[in-house]
Amino acid sequence: MIRFRMATGLACALLTMLGAPQGWAEDIHEVPQARSEVVLSFSPVVKKVQPAVVNVYASRTERQARNPLFDDPVFRQFFGNRDVPRPGGPTAQSLGSGVIVDPSGLVVTNYHVIDKMTEVKVALSDKREIEADIVLRDRRTDLAVLKLEGNGPFPVMELGDSDGLEVGDLVLAIGDPFGVGQTVTQGIVSGLARTQVGGSDYQFFIQTDAAINPGNSGGALADMHARLVGINSAIYSQSGGSIGIGFAIPVNLVKTVIQSAKNGRPDVQRPWLGATLQAMSGEIAGTLGLDRPGGALVASVLDRGPAKDAGLKSSDIITAVDGQAVDDPDGFGYRFATKPIGSVANLTVSRAGKSVTLPVKLITAPEVPPREPVKLRNRSPFSGATIVNVSPAVAEEMSIQGVHDGVAVSDVDQSSNAAEAGLEKGDVILSLDNERIASTKQMQRLTDAAHSYYRLTLSRGGRLVETDIGE
Predict the structure, then answer these.
(1) I want to staple 132 with a disulfide (CB 3.0 to 4.6 A). Which of 94, 146, 322, 426 is the partner?
(2) pLDDT digits (tens, 9 = 90+) for 196-252
(3) Would you call 33 exposed, middle or buried from its count of C-beta atoms within 10 A (0-12, 13-18, 19+)?
(4) Catalytic residue status for 112
(5) Catalytic residue of the set 94, 217, 233, 242
């Protein structure tokens, strides 16, 4: 006769949590004698969590171009200027999930669920559908916060501590995959601090084998204490369905976004370091006399900023933030971003083989020089682009790396000259016709002049691009 034995640690944890019959946990090495001794259930956790997990339906009605009739002076005399929704026209739609995190009705979801959407409805587990306002969008973390209309209190999910997670911990993923209705899947934490996943600027994901499918985005990753430990965000898949590799944004990063929304801000304030970091390769580690790569290498330090004031230097290697180890720049970015503005973070730095601790003041990036936005409306190839002066604040906001001057493209109109010329949001224009660009006003003056071709130098994603573009 074959006897099945449960792993001692897991069995005790499950039985204690789920309220198994008294005495069973102490006698786990014996064959179960009754059905009640082998039926385990996550229902107590689900019952506590489910009311706070919602479905998010976002949409945007396309607007048609102005009817030529509206430009008729007689028509405008009686009806005025107007843009109207296309009658019965196409509507862009998005489906996802969300989590209520405050009794007043604050809901956290993914940025990509409501990106470019204008109307949002939220369906609660009790079948109520409630209109919601988008109060905060944060592309960099791929998070957004909604506010439910109407009076609360609404059911809330308790926030946990993602730093307390360990590989092998049991978790539940709750959301609305494929729009079939609220669904619960179970798995374990497969990995922590996953970087190079994509989807946000802060690459520090929780990996789980709990099934996450399209529509789960923005849903809850819950621990066995019914606490929120992550927001389900992405999957690795070649088919579009779950293959057991899903990723969630750690709740400790989510907390910073929630706090910004509670403070009434439409954006997220983050601490600014004032230095450029790069990943350590084996070759660089060997050059520095290290046995193996690890930490975030300081490539450069701005003349003015918290890093300079703290004494950080080029070639320093940041290995920890407030005692929490970092393996690469992404790990540092996550740890640094979760620190509150106005406090101090202690950086552990390896310098010439010695370990030093540097206290860094946590302040927001300054907007110096002012951005002074200009929308180019001339006949040049740049017409239709909106440009701003590059400052530390703009660089942080637009994820610009290694560039500290020039003008940044903050927006490009569709079907404009700039779009046809290949300009993209986030490009930094450094020079035009070999003249260094220092301000938006200078860029406007140079492009107002009639030219057949322009010699353009710009930075795109950290790469230098030189090209000729014509009208």
Answers:
(1) 146
(2) 555 556 567 889 988 887 778 899 999 999 999 999 986 554 555 555 678 899 999
(3) exposed
(4) yes
(5) 217
